[in-house]
Amino acid sequence: MEDRTRLVAGGNLLQAHSWKGMLEACGIEVELRGEALLGGVGELPADLQDVELWVSESQYEAARAQLETLNTDSPQWQCLKCHEMNEGSFELCWHCSAERSERLS
Ligand SMILES: [Zn+2]
């Protein structure tokens, strides 16, 4: 049995399912885990929290890269200096030329 690594934790069920589908489309095998999933399938709330995605260790890097691609789909970032919104492709704020800096949530 191959070792598995936790890829992400704390997503909700809908998000986890969309990630799972996306990763599986890339040939990465994904396992959904979560406390609430133990309770039986079929009546899960759509906003279920604390879902975890697990992948095999050998596919972890590829899975991470795929997730990062997905995350860059949220294209804008906000300048911490002047609070202007900038397109994701900008490395400097168009407004005040401050370097791109983001709060990591
Ligand atoms: Zn700025």
UniProtKB/TrEMBL annotation:
PROSITE patterns: ZF_RANBP2_1. Pfam families: DUF2007. The keyword Zinc-finger applies. InterPro entries: DUF2007 (IPR018551), Znf_RanBP2 (IPR001876), Znf_RanBP2_sf (IPR036443). SUPFAM superfamilies: Ran binding protein zinc finger-like. Residues 77-96 form the RanBP2-type domain. Keywords: Metal-binding, Zinc, Zinc-finger. This is Zinc-finger-like domain-containing protein. The lineage of its organism: Bacteria, Pseudomonadati, Pseudomonadota, Gammaproteobacteria, Alteromonadales.
